[in-house]
Write a structure and sequence with these properties.
The protein is 44% helix and 0% strand. It has 211 residues and is mainly α.
C-alpha cells in the first residue's frame, strides 16, 4: 500500500552511535532488546499470524531489505501483554478482539473475491482488497460487525507505522538519531540540525570521532 521512497540518508547508520556519547547505557539496553530479542508468537493463531505478516508486507513493503523490520512479532507482543493506547473508537471492539475479527474479515474478503486466503494472493490482488476495505467497500459478511475503514486506518496503519519506525533500520532511512537520552536535541526548527544529526543526501554520516 505504501510506495517505498529513496532515503535522503543512504550512508547513514544510526547504530554507529551505539558506543558514542549520543546514547547512554539505558538507551543501548533498549535498542539491544529491540534488535536481538524479537518476541515469539504467543497471541495470534498460526493462521492469524500468516495473514498479519502478509498484511504488514503490503502496508510497508520492504523488498530492499535483506532482513526486513519485524512488525508482526511486536504487534503480537503488544496484544499478549495488554499494551495499548488506552483509547478506542466506540464502534470498534477492544484491541485483541478487533485484530482477530479484522484479520478473519480480511481472509474472508480474499476468499470471497479470489477464492484463497489473503497471504496466498498476488500483491496486486492484496492491494485491491485493502483499497476496498479502506474505502469502506468490503463485501464479506464479517465487515457487518466491524467498520473496515476504521479498523484499517486507525488500528492497522497506525500500529504498523508505530512499530516500523521504532526500529533502528527505519531511523537510519529517515536520518533520525534515536532516543534523545542523554544528549538531547536543541535545534528543533525547520531545516535546522544539531551537529550530531545525520547529513542529507550523499554527505554521509557525521564522523563521531570529530565530536
Amino acid at each position: 500500500m505504501v510506495e517505498r521512497f529513496r532515503s535522503l540518508y543512504p550512508h547513514y547508520d544510526v547504530l554507529a552511535k551505539r558506543n558514542t556519547p549520543s546514547w547512554n547505557d539505558q538507551t543501548r539496553a533498549v535498542i539491544d532488546v529491540r534488535l536481538g530479542a524479537v518476541p515469539p508468537r504467543r497471541f495470534f493463531t498460526e493462521a492469524e499470524w500468516t495473514t498479519l505478516v502478509a498484511l504488514c508486507d503490503r502496508v510497508i513493503p520492504q523488498p530492499e531489505r535483506a532482513e526486513p523490520v519485524p512488525i508482526t512479532p511486536w504487534i503480537d507482543a503488544r496484544l499478549q501483554e495488554g499494551h495499548g493506547s488506552g483509547t478506542r473508537f466506540a464502534d470498534l471492539p477492544p484491541g485483541p478482539e478487533a485484530w482477530r475479527h479484522g484479520l478473519a474479515a480480511i481472509d474472508a474478503e480474499a476468499i470471497l473475491r479470489f477464492g484463497q486466503r489473503f497471504h496466498r494472493l498476488a500483491a496486486a490482488e492484496q492491494d485491491l482488497i485493502l483499497t476496498a476495505i479502506d474505502a469502506g467497500k468490503g463485501r464479506a459478511e464479517a465487515w457487518s460487525s466491524l467498520p473496515g475503514r476504521k479498523f484499517f486506518r486507525h488500528l492497522v496503519l497506525i500500529t504498523v507505522a508505530e512499530i516500523y519506525y521504532a526500529h533502528p533500520a527505519a531511523w537510519s532511512e529517515i536520518g533520525f538519531g534515536g532516543p534523545a537520552s542523554p544528549r538531547g536535541y536543541l535545534r528543533l526548527g525547520m531545516d535546522r540540525h544539531d551537529p550530531w544529526e545525520a547529513a542529507e543526501e550523499d554527505r554521509g554520516p557525521v564522523d563521531e570521532a570529530r565530536r
